[in-house]
Amino acid sequence: MENEQQSVGQSVLAFYRVLPFNYRQSVAEHAREIKERNAILSYPVLPPLLEKPEMRVLEIGCGPGWMSNGIAHHYGCPVTGLDFNPVAVERAQAVAVELAVKSEFQVGDLFQWSPEAPYPLVISLGVLHHTDDCQGAVRRLCTDFTAPGGHVLIGLYHEPGRRPFLDHFADMKAAGASEDEMLERFRKLDSHIKDETHLMSWFRDQVLHPHETQHTLREMVALIEDCGMTLEATSINRFQPFDSIEGLYAQEQGYADLAAERLAAGQYFPGFFVFLAGKAR
Ligand SMILES: C[S@@+](CC[C@H](N)C(=O)[O-])C[C@H]1O[C@@H](n2cnc3c(N)ncnc32)[C@H](O)[C@@H]1O
């Protein structure tokens, strides 16, 4: 088990050392993107939390720091970003200096690192499904990193929603497509990315990754409830209020068809979901 754990972590780290996810050509490009567009607004549950007095944020698997530096720039709260890739952390730090914001970054593995004190808000987007123990990682965030009365926002690949995308590129590969041909297919699907380094970082992350797992809201709700947390919102229903969790579970099954339809229409649908959970005081 320990060897397996080491080998997944090591291969994922080696993969991201070559090119971190969400990397851009320059520090200035990263900073310009953060200033010009408040990307935090894609997660409408965050601003009310970030505007609370005394808010402090921990981001696990921050990569080059668009979220951590974006929060520090647009909301002014102190943010700590953790990632085990020193290449990504160096870039995140340089962007923080360029923006003159109060975010700080540390190099560390989420399974070994511990905060000095738990945080009222812990965020982790697209990270935990690249470990060999996604459930253990979620448990660690909820139990060890989040303060009583605090929140976690976690984003993971979604089992029904991700499958059509993975099958599409697996079929291309089986039919003998080269990496360049798959890159061109990806470029067409995700045509909004203009920076070539950024595009390549997405293509590698989405299509060539050495390790990923997929999950469901149903699985995550059972897990967070076991950690003393309650589901408050999810991207499965576009962060709207919900009457019954069973209704959300029915809705998430529909993501397989939705993903297949989007792909058939030539639209990018990576199959990713996010949930916000609150911890009892
Ligand atoms: C897909 S990227 C997401 C980066 C960032 N959250 C974003 O949205 O741009 C996954 C990140 O998780 C980091 N990571 C993976 N496993 C980790 C671990 N065990 N400890 C710390 N960071 C880890 C990788 O280095 C990488 O930066």
Task: Kindly list the characteristics that best describe this protein.
globular; 17% strand; 281 residues
Explain the overall architecture.
The protein is α/β, with parallel strands linked by helices. It has one domain: Vaccinia Virus protein VP39 (Rossmann fold). The protein has 12 helices and 7 strands. It has a 7-stranded mixed sheet, with helices on both faces. Helix 4 runs parallel beside helix 5 and helix 8 crosses helix 9. The mean pLDDT is 95. The structure holds S-adenosylmethionine. The site of S-adenosylmethionine (SAM) has 23 residues, from helix 1.
> Which stretches are poorly predicted, pLDDT < 50 over at least 5 residues?
none
- What is the CATH first-level class name? Alpha Beta
How much helix, percentage-wise, in residues? 40-55%
**What general form does the structure show?**
globular
Q: Based on DSSP secondary structure assignment, what is the total number of beta strands?
A: 7
How many helices in DSSP terms? Answer: 12
Class from secondary-structure proportions: alpha/beta
**Over all CA atoms, what is the radius of gyration?**
18 Å
Write the layout of secondary structure elements.
Blueprint: H1 2-18, H2 27-36, H3 46-50, E1 57-60, H4 66-75, E2 79-83, H5 86-99, E3 103-107, E4 119-125, H6 134-145, E5 146-157, H7 159-174, H8 179-189, H9 196-207, H10 217-226, E6 229-234, H11 245-253, H12 255-264, E7 272-279
Parallel strand pairs: 1-2, 1-4, 2-3, 4-5
Antiparallel strand pairs: 5-7, 6-7
Bound molecules: S-adenosylmethionine (SAM).
S-adenosylmethionine binds next to helix 1.
